[in-house]
Amino acid sequence: MEDVAREAGVSRALVSLVFRGQPHVSERRRTAVLEAADRLGYRLNAAASSLASRQSRIIGLVVNDLSNPYLVAGTEALQERAESVGRRLILGLAKRDAEHEQAAIETLLQHRPDALILAGTVLPKAVLTRFGRQVPTLVMGRIVRDASVDCIAIDDARGAELVVEHLAGLGHSRILHVDGGGGAGAAPRRTGYRKTMTRLGLAEHIDVMAGDFTEQAGANAARQLLDRDVLPTAVFAADDLVALGVLDVFRGAGVAVPEDVSVVGFDDSTIARLQAISLTSVSQPVLHMSSLAIDAVLARLEDPTAGYRAVVVPPQLVIRGSSGTPRPATA
Amino acid sequence: MEDVAREAGVSRALVSLVFRGQPHVSERRRTAVLEAADRLGYRLNAAASSLASRQSRIIGLVVNDLSNPYLVAGTEALQERAESVGRRLILGLAKRDAEHEQAAIETLLQHRPDALILAGTVLPKAVLTRFGRQVPTLVMGRIVRDASVDCIAIDDARGAELVVEHLAGLGHSRILHVDGGGGAGAAPRRTGYRKTMTRLGLAEHIDVMAGDFTEQAGANAARQLLDRDVLPTAVFAADDLVALGVLDVFRGAGVAVPEDVSVVGFDDSTIARLQAISLTSVSQPVLHMSSLAIDAVLARLEDPTAGYRAVVVPPQLVIRGSSGTPRPATA
DNA sequence: CTGAAAGCGCTTACAG
DNA sequence: CTGAAAGCGCTTACAG
Question: B56-154+285-313: what fold?
């Protein structure tokens, strides 16, 4: 920086101002500085800036389960939005395992991120609170009722409601749910399913199988179903991966979808959209949510004392080929 | 750190030693320091370490096109391996566009990564050389003959050879290739196709359509094919996404796969493995390659003056349902 | 192992 | 705008 100042014939302080994009610098000197920097191949040292300014301009992102295409899309969108506001993402990966996730966060914090975004976190509320008190934290995909973290998620219960209403509207009554276990959003989806079944007079058909957000869980559930005397006419899977597992096993066993059984997923991930899969699914507007997430982080940085904020985004059902009317005969 | 030293009753220097995991510290003092740090909620400041030690322990990863499941798997594997050797990934995303990619690298370099990994780079050799001279750089998915960057890739030409041999072995002769344009590895795949066709006496059937590594490109190619008088009996797509685009359009047009046309992809991504897709594809051992990549980076850091290294990993063909014998009638 | 010192490359605040 | 100074939180090297 010293060298750049000399080369451009200005003071060190001015160089710093230019690189931070401060307004009160004359155009002449600004270009002189930038050209000098270019000639010398100078590049701001982010570590030094971070240390001196107490701002890292880094956002720590912890993604649970990058094998989920839905979270991949979210990561991509977050990265783009973060970049557009001059922040860089530093990545932590976890696999829906609280211990790993916590460890990932701990090391991320060594880089003193300005904020933390936790996508699909499986951490208990108490732990989230603790992190939230150390650094501005945003939880994506789950609503945590706690003043120390901001949240953004779709209305999972409403999503489940849309699914059950859709299936019931087609004439289904034996609608089974394979749930997402302790995953982010799994609980409200389960509750939404139960409530809507009850509201529609289908309480006696409520049937929940335990799962998690993996293809494996869906496959397991489907195999267990095949052992039963009678199949449900529709399966509502906790997410698209679960639905995929169900579809694969059904396909292998000669169960026709949607003729024998309708299958519905959740997330509207890239997988659901494949023509060969064509899965009816609840859409989460990833781009929109990612944009809101970065906005929320910036707002929080500007006003750290602002109140708790939770944004709930409405879901939308995307109907594709995997759901249809039940066979009249099987009723 | 001062406080931790006081709390543990040791010197600041000792605290630093403990946190850097240095060996010559007595067990007693080590635990005393760690416990004191825990009590005070102390965490090493990565920016300060980076500045003082001239080592960031950060690896900059630039991924072209996170919409490609193959590159996602690679990212995940790299992250895991990097973590196991105490490094953190800082992410840059590009979309097979040289300008964006270069800009992403520039800002990554502000964080002074110990090394740079470029996955699926589309940058011209001259630019790669320039970066390679500034920071240890590893190119994944493409072999660049340049002493300033290390490379790791599968043998793309051999992969193409395996595909053509497989299809020819099934009895195909009219084997068309939809290529990957300027994408990493596209050129050797194209060449491998041409050479093998020639070697097998099928030179007159060589037929290359221009594409890139997207579903869209595959769909476009398939649509053009449908306008022709006669379809090829097999399509070798530059990667799985291209193959997916081909499959979707064929499916929509009532072209049966593999009965009417066999389709083969490249990457053996998660998509190829889906039962509903069941795409014959060339497998790139992502986990293995990611592991080699981190090893190569570490080796380079230990010995910056070592010679140019390029590792070529052998590919493997995974045969699934999308390829079969050609219809006898159509010959 | 300790203790004191210098320095990494910036930002910040201030007098001019 | 300049110029000089202090400081961010570490690491490094060194004498003891």
Answer: Rossmann fold (3.40.50)
